[in-house]
Design goal:
The structure is a homodimer. Chain A is α+β, with helices and mostly antiparallel strands. Helix content of chain A is about 40%, strand content about 20%. In chain A, the strands form two sheets. Chain A has a six-stranded antiparallel β-sheet with strand order 3-8-4-5-6-7. The mean pLDDT of chain A is about 95. Chains A and B meet through helix 5 and helix 6 of A and helix 5 and helix 6 of B. Bound molecules: manganese (II) ion (MN) (4 copies). One manganese (II) ion binds next to helix 4 of chain A. Chain A binds a DNA duplex through helix 2 and helix 3.
DNA sequence: ATTCTGATTTTGATTGGCCAAAATAAAAAG
DNA sequence: CTTTTTATTTTGGCCAATCAAAATCAGAAT
């Protein structure tokens, strides 16, 4: 049985690997994500390497083995199904469920997980628009444009928000930029590093390019 | 923050204390319940004593302080609400939920807990008939007779089953002796150490006195 | 080619939980 | 009263996960 710690390491290797073009995750990034010192990450990764869950290249970085990836995706499935369940069934806010799921993802049995999946009618995305890895088969992660780079003045739909910080999510929520909402990107001002968006039936909002790049859209 | 281990120790001290007339729980019983060696229990209890969660009398036993009892009841509340939720909402069998709740009881936040409580409309007992400690105030644990000692030939109702073993619970389930069901105790045979019961609209069952004593009833 | 710098690894130490087995104390038996 | 039994505590050690700080390495800069 993998401990919560092991599950968290594998999940973070997977998540960092997704948002980076390199095929190896640097130890520094991993240590930062796990909120441990670099030495701690190194020794843990060595242990995971002995357990065949990761491939470790000293001074270069780390990648998941097929076995490690399977486990990471299973944790991610639990995390995201739990988030959706907390929002849709128990009525928690999508801005807060991440922290809850961070604990519950390690405590849910396969049986309970599949009941939740059935109860929710086999959903494909969580409250943040993150795709839910299926029990079997591969997860499709469509490549999406963001508010920082999608076409201007076209009606589009918010598909995914790439940040779990409750402060940021509350701002997104207040501004009407939640997943599923229709929006139009009005214009961009490179000098001011700003993007102005009009969400359907809400006042326009201006946000910085960095924030805009964390909000992904799909074309209508 | 109390670790899962600490929470489990406190819960077991509480539970053993409930089913015993002595006011101190013996280290041996606790070690057995926690499935650790006696020495491990001793050193853990010393630590809990330093943390003011228990009162420890060397060579005599251990009891919860008010603070420790509060924490134990909070864990028990989580455990029992989770069990009921798993049965009533996700449709798991009452014979299996104990093991699930044993993990989840440590991973549920106060916020989620109170949502579950609201969703279930503030229930007072779990699927086994065990009382659910309220968020505030005292839990009432009515003194109940068992199938081994209640009056004969009187219509009564199964109120509580004092064993979490899935094998035993499945037998109870098959026999129609689940909490809420009406039954009549037909007769007892001290020589055979046996009790014969007729559950409403089910064939009669005969069980040993020890098993009968774990099934509690309330008068109609 | 040499030096510097930043990332990484190593080393030595700590903490929480655990076990095995020896030591001890209390209770039961004689 | 002693002796024996049984419960409990102590001792010494292990493993997972962590940190602080020293050592090392690789690439960048000179
Ligand atoms: Mn986690
Ligand atoms: Mn999410
Ligand atoms: Mn538990
Ligand atoms: Mn129960």
């Amino acid at each position: 049985m993998a401990s919560s710690t092991v599950e968290n390491y594998l999940k973070h290797v997977y998540l960092i690997g997704q948002t980076s073009d390199q095929d190896l995750v640097a130890m520094g990034q991993l240590a930062t994500a796990m909120e441990v010192t670099p030495g701690t990450a190194t020794s843990m990764i060595k242990a995971l390497s002995d357990a065949e869950l990761v491939r470790y290249e000293p001074r270069a970085g780390v990648a998941l083995t097929p076995q490690g990836e399977k486990l990471a995706l299973h944790v991610l499935r639990r995390h995201r199904l739990v988030e959706l369940f907390l929002v849709n069934v128990l009525g928690l806010s999508w801005t807060e469920v991440h922290a809850e799921a961070e604990e519950l993802e390690h405590a849910i049995s396969d049986k309970v997980l599949e009941r939740i999946d059935t109860y929710l009618d086999h959903p494909s995305v969580d409250p943040h628009g993150d795709p839910i890895p299926p029990a079997t088969g591969v997860m499709d992660t469509p490549t999406l444009a963001s508010l920082a780079d999608c076409p201007l003045t076209q009606p589009t739909r918010i598909a995914r928000v790439l940040d779990q910080d409750p402060g940021f999510l509350k701002f997104v929520d207040r501004s009407g930029l939640t997943p599923g909402r229709g929006v139009v990107v009005q214009h961009r001002d490179p000098a001011a590093d700003a993007v102005t968006i009009t969400p359907d039936s809400q006042p326009p909002v201006t946000l910085g390019t960095h924030a805009a790049s964390k909000i992904l859209v799909e074309s209508e």
